[in-house]
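Hi R.,

Here's the chain you asked about this morning:
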Amino acid sequence: MATAEITPAPVREAPSPGSADVTVTDPALVRRAVKAAALGNAMEWFDFGVYSYIAVTLGKVFFPSGSPTVQLLSTFGAFAAAFLVRPLGGLVFGPLGDRVGRQKILALTMIMMAAGTFAIGLIPSYGSIGVGAPLLLLAARLVQGFSTGGEYAGASTFIAEYAPDKRRGFLGSWLEFGTLAGYIGGAGLVTLMTALLSGDDLLSWGWRIPFLIAGPMGIVGLYLRMRLEETPAFAAEARNTGNTGKSGKSGKSGTERPKVPLREMVAGQWRALLLCVGLVLVFNVTDYMLLSYMPSYLTSELKYDETHGLLVVLAVMALMMVVQPFAGALTDRVGRRPVIAAGCAGFLFLSVPALLLIRQGSLLAIGLGMGALGLLLVCFTASMPSALPALFPTRVRYGSLSIGFNVSVSLFGGTTPLVVTALIGATGNLMMPAYYMMAAAVIGGFAVWRMTESAGRPLPGSAPSVAPR
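And the predicted structure, written out as tokens:
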């Protein structure tokens, strides 16, 4: 049988929530699950880094008739469109993940993400096909955004359900490690190409290379995800419902559950959803503020050299990558709540001093201010992949988390650069980024105060999960 070949170590799963049985994890399967999930996140943010750094060139390729400002706005308009369809993707892929399985949906989202990114690299320029070029760019971005709606919630759920209870924080932290690696890889590749290629070469064909790389990356990611078994928690839940699909067995090809009503995922989980929205709000407002908005803030508001500003952000992300696994392990020892609370308190009390440092303008001051904000952000990136799935029971985990996460990201995270820019324009106050992060920290602090500690405990609705001795 295929299942017996892929799972060399015996795994016992709970036949019902609250059972005395214990799931003994297979370390090799857990490592593969972490790698496969993290690669998808890395690919998503690789595209994010590429698109952000090459936006000026894309504006010339797809919107040549406008002024430079109009070109840039049009390019980022197509980029922002992906955020509009993320909640729709969550509404589709989340419930499907609770019905047919996490592994199947994660394989599907990987295919769609890779296809959308790869397609951008194949789109003819405006000079070749006219208005069809920007329309195709928009269509590719919508495919990417729709697939992303099911990616993060599914990947974090997948790792959380595979991980032993006492190592869930450490293993989950590698999901955001993939995020940082993908962004650095995409931004670094564009920076290298800009340095090596002439402006004409970059405009005529060079800009396509980063997007075309998504094809091989997607094939590797799909291969890793297709080799995985369904998570023990989902397989046990499917057996408990008495529905093992058309094949009559559980496993990669047959495990399936009855459809969970959308009302149960939302109204039945309203308290957990509100906590999820609050936690994701502080996580993503600070994330997009630091990694997406601050380079523009340094350039447009503080008149700092654009290249140096981007390099500072990349250096901060490299620092975060080093700290990330250690912070994840810390959440297993002291708990998710203390680490998230420390991040909220840090952003509440240190956002103003950090921004004042950044506004001094020297490389040292900017590095210290950005580095401090980056280390505070690690409190969230190391905790959320394990804390968020623990808010919901196995029956609705993928669907409810997808809805809560994507609604919060679309309303608050993705709009952060736009809102802060508008606030600065309306008030003339260059401290608005700090005040915005402080407001998010208050909301996140309330959410963490109301959440239940999940470190070292079984996921709701799942059997205890332990590593083999």
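The beta strands are 23-24, 465-466.

Let me know if you need anything else.
M.
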